[in-house]
Amino acid sequence: MSERKEILVSDDDIKKQKEIINQMAVLNKDRYPKFHIETYGCQMNVHDSEKLAGMLTEMGYTHTDNLEDADVILFNTCCVREHAEIRIFGRVSQLKELKQRKPNITLGICGCMMQEKEVVEAIKNDYPYIDIVFGTHNLFKFPELLQESLNSDTTIIDIWDDNKSIVEDIPIRRAEGLKAWVNIIYGCNNFCTYCIVPYVRGREKSREPHDIINEIQSLANEGFKEITLLGQNVNSYGNDLPTKIDFADLLYMINDIDGIERIRFMTSHPKDISDKLIFAMRDLDKLCEHLHLPVQSGSNEILERMNRKYTRERYLEIINKLRDNIPGIAITTDIIVGFPGETDEDFQDTLDLVKEVRYDSAYTFIYSKRKGTPAEKMSNQVDEDIKHKRLEELINLQNAISIEKNNEMKGKIVEVLVEGTSKRDGEKLTGRTRTNKIVHFKAKPELIGKFVNVKIIDTKAWTMQGELISE
Q1: pTM of the entire structure?
Q2: Is residue 243 part of a domain?
Q3: CB–CB of 312/298 below 8 Å?
Q4: Which residues define the annotated binding site?
Q5: Annotated binding site for [4Fe-4S] cluster
Q6: What domain range is 370 assigned to?
């Protein structure tokens, strides 16, 4: 097993990966091997999987949805919540029989879970049929790890504690042809007491603005219409760069790129929302009227225990300023129930805040202990039955609000970027509004990839039905 380490990646390291990619492409010529990737967790993981797919594609592999057809299978893992880890171990267990039938198949596990030492030990001891194990900091090194695995009878394990470099120019196989994810910052410095992300993703590292602009310009040249800027906390962008630049400055630069019609970003931390950013959202025509702003709790006591670094009052002040400056903005959030020490009064504070803010939608979660985080050792852990009852009450409240807010859209005409055919009704197309609402409507497939005007005729909590009024 490779020892854990912090590394500054050299040009020679990157050159080596490119050479291996070329060697593998020659080896795979006329063989047509296939790969399959399963992704768990956030959009950062989704984009990491696009990079893994990009490297595999350049090495001569083609994608397959069928595990039985794959020559390489990768699980890109998430460790933010216990449920995700349980699911992943279950899926890995199911591969044992496949490996016995197809011993030449390459099985790999990567991502956030692999940054946890006890998880790696469990894989070594309980899943010896896994061929490659690597983490979040050396994803760029995958070609070398794959080549090494193909020439070895032992599990290749390579985990880095950190990577002080940002490796650019990794091949990317985009999942879509209209919308693209673009990383602008990696890691997190916030250390919320419940969260494992700073430990598995490392400290904040911002990409150089010219690298971001060049990537987005290339996407525009390829016909992409919408980009979503990614980071654990995009609002911290630029704090670690030698040049003086912040997130709002970057947004102004991106807004000037011809061909890109919509700009989104996620995720934002309330403590770093500035007036400058709010005014950029107000003034930039390509920046969509949607903000995902995790509140986590409506109780000041719980927010302090979470180390969120803002109060309920400050959060509401931000919400009011957003709505004053950006009429019609859609605001979504994350909320945790059952955090250690959460009383009935604390939970009521959360319900009251949800009623006051009236989110368009919310991702709601039961607090999940994460090994090594301060919250794991906190006293007054909440009973599981109470957690589930609170979650149900919160979901019912938010669903009712979501339905009410979507009902307000009936009869209105909205701009929709047509993304494809509806998965539930093949006769309908589907797309999103600037406020990130999903709309289904009948229209010809030729409109996929175009912006159209749609009149909303019916709504539910998560989707809307419309009719095309112009082409």
Answers
A1: 0.91
A2: yes
A3: yes
A4: 42, 78, 112, 188, 192, 195
A5: 42, 78, 112, 188, 192, 195
A6: 179-407
